[in-house]
Design brief:
This protein is 56% helix and 15% strand. By secondary structure, it is an alpha+beta fold.
């Protein structure tokens, strides 16, 4: 029992306690028990109990009937208080006050019969009145209370709202992006509230509310507002306050986008934006629109977040691709030490790394290299190093370079600066090496030519002072031999200078090897193979190797020289080995140097292996010492 009924019973008990008839306990318990159990007893039971009490104590019956009617109808407190006070000063007839105030026929009939019963003295009349009271009380059960019917109606409305919400949610989930969701929101809103204009305003990157989707005859004004970042005044107000705005006569004047529309509604959709509806006349029902608002807000916010996630994914993929192109460019720059090649690689890497129409590489304001069409437009620049080298890229007039482009170009420029420095150092090292080689060659040539010249000079002086024919003949023969040795040295130098002249051509090795076997004591083991080379250079390489082998096996009890030829991949391998004294470890690193020899003075020039090594390189092959005891040289030439 709620607090209101408890208050009513407390007032009833107080009134009964102060009644002048002083009812006995039995009748009081009957009256209160019938009232308390009314909800569980058959219809009319409580009324019959009150009628019995009325036959014993009219005042108690009237007061109990009034309280019972109040309990059943849940009257306003002032009606109950008026009935209790009237019964206090006028017992019996005072009970009629409440039915008159309540204006219910059933309550009035029950009160009149109870009051008549209290005045009846004839037993037969009392019986008739008692039967009438029972007949009035025992009726068909009344219809459900109004609140139950209202609850049913509310439940029906709630079920309808749930169905609508489910259908709207299904439609909103079909939107692929923010624009698609916005169009669905407009469609649902126009279905619920037909009007002339419907627009969805959403914040742009600068936080300004601009129309994203709309259906309105003011299309041109909406497009202009989207470009200029303008919005409808009532929309801005709803956005700032966070509450729906309904205006019968909106203000704003010329600042309005939707002219001559009234009334208008601006419905905020959380952080997603504001829904605008406007019509030239009529009224708006906000219940259905308010039901749509949270669904639209959630759908739009989810679409925005999905677009951001997609943009982050695309940005990450673009960064990965940018890093891949950067690494490819750096790898190309690190693959060469030639400055001109580096500049070409830098140009190609810049084009792959950052889209642009032209560029240049400048040093102290002077252009080292220019490519494309570097006209007017936005520029992107990066310093190669502290020396003043700058890489400048020029884009098209409507192009926008990103921060990632600047970072990638800076890294590429740093790598290019380092590669150019390495190329410069390499060039200096090569120049230094060439100068050292030229100096060494000049010293060797001077030494080798100076010995014959000194011998010739000495023999010529002796020839001038002697008159003996035999002596003169010996001196002339010595001069002739010395001149021949000097001619051999100069011939080898000229051969070295002319190395690489002429086109390489297919050369069968079998005839060449047969000719060598006739001149040298060599054991041949070869396949009939063809190389791409110049015949005279191949012959000179093999002759030099065989001559060294012949000198190495001198004095051996069983001298042996072997020459084998076989295919090895795309090359032809020629091995020349002997069982001579071998090459000491301290001399192995110098055997291919010009003028280096271990023979006695005058016995060798030191140019044979140097010339052989140089010729092998010029033919696209190699010459290596692969064994020192016994000695073995390996010559590899391209196979034809």
């Amino acid at each position: 029992m709620d607090a209101r009924r408890g208050l009513i019973l407390a007032l009833l008990v107080g009134a009964l306690a102060s009644d002048r008839w002083h009812p006995d306990a039995t009748m009081l318990l009957v009256a209160l028990g019938a009232l308390a159990l009314e909800a569980f007893l058959p219809p009319g039971t409580a009324a019959a109990a009150l009628l019995w009490v009325a036959s014993q104590n009219p005042g108690l019956a009237a007061l109990a009937l009034t309280a019972g009617t109040a309990l059943k109808k849940q009257p306003p407190p002032w009606k109950l208080l008026a009935a209790l006070l009237a019964n206090r000063w006028l017992p019996g007839p005072g009970a009629l006050l409440y039915p008159l105030l309540e204006r219910t026929p059933q309550a009035a009939c029950q009160s009149l019969l109870s009051w008549a019963l209290t005045r009846a003295t004839d037993p037969l009349l009392s019986l008739v009145l008692l039967l009438a009271s029972l007949t009035t009380a025992i009726q068909t059960r009344p219809k459900p209370p109004l609140q139950i019917e209202q609850a049913r109606q509310e439940l029906s409305k709630a079920a309808g709202k749930l169905d609508s919400t489910s259908a709207w949610t299904t439609r909103l989930l079909q939107g692929q992006d923010r624009g698609g969701v916005a169009e669905i929101v407009l469609s649902i809103a126009l279905e619920q509230q037909p009007c002339r204009s419907a627009a969805l305003f959403m914040p742009d990157e600068e936080g300004r509310l601009v129309p994203l989707a709309y259906r309105s005859p003011y299309r041109q004004r909406l497009e202009t507002a989207a470009v200029l970042g303008r919005t409808e005044p009532v929309v801005q107000e709803a956005w700032e306050r966070g509450k729906p705005q309904h205006r019968e006569s909106p203000t704003g004047g010329s600042e309005r986008i939707f002219l001559h529309e009234r009334p208008v509604v601006a419905l905020p959709l959380g952080k997603a934006g504001v829904l605008y509806l406007g019509a030239p006349e009529g009224d708006f029902g906000l219940d259905r629109l308010a039901q749509l608002a949270p669904l639209a807000a959630d759908a739009l916010e989810a679409a925005v977040e999905q677009e951001r996630a997609r943009a982050r994914g695309e940005r990450l993929e673009e960064r990965v691709n940018l890093m891949s192109r950067l690494l490819e460019g750096m790898r190309a720059l690190a693959s060469t030490l030639d400055e001109e090649t580096l500049l070409r690689y830098l140009e190609a890497a810049a084009f792959r790394l950052v889209p642009h129409r032209g560029g240049s590489l400048t040093r102290q304001g002077n252009v080292l290299r220019r490519w494309g069409d570097p006209g007017e437009g936005p520029t992107l620049a990066a310093d190669l190093d502290e020396s003043g080298d700058t890489l400048v890229l020029v884009g098209t007039p409507n192009q926008t370079f990103l921060r990632d482009h600047q970072t990638a170009l800076t890294l590429l420029a740093s790598m290019a600066g380092l590669s150019l420095q390495n190329a410069s150092h390499h060039r200096q090292l090569l120049l230094t090496g060439k100068m050292a080689a030229v100096g060494q060659l000049a010293a060797g040539v001077a030494h080798e030519i100076n010995n014959p010249l000194m011998a010739i000079s000495t023999d010529a002086e002796m020839l001038a002072v002697t008159d003996q024919p035999e002596m003169r003949q010996e001196l002339l023969e010595a001069i002739r031999l010395t001149v021949g040795r000097a001619r051999q040295i100069t011939g080898q130098l000229l051969s070295f200078a002319r190395g690489g002249a002429g086109e390489r051509q297919p050369l069968k090795l079998a005839p060449l090897l047969d000719g060598l076997s006739a001149r040298f004591p060599v054991e041949l083991s070869f396949e009939d193979l063809t190389v791409i080379a110049r015949p005279e250079e191949v012959q000179q390489i093999l002759v030099n190797l065989l001559q060294n082998a012949v000198l190495a096996v001198e004095g051996q009890p069983e001298p042996r020289i072997q020459l084998t030829v076989r295919a090895e991949g795309s090359s032809v391998r020629v091995d020349v080995s002997d069982n001579g004294c071998g090459i000491p470890a301290e001399n192995q690193a110098r055997i291919f140097e010009p003028f280096f020899t271990t023979r006695d003075v005058g016995a060798g020039t030191g140019m044979g292996l140097f010339l052989a090594y140089t010729m092998a390189r010029s033919l696209g092959g190699t010459l290596e010492l692969v064994g020192s005891n016994p000695t073995q040289f390996c010559l590899k030439l391209p196979q034809g």
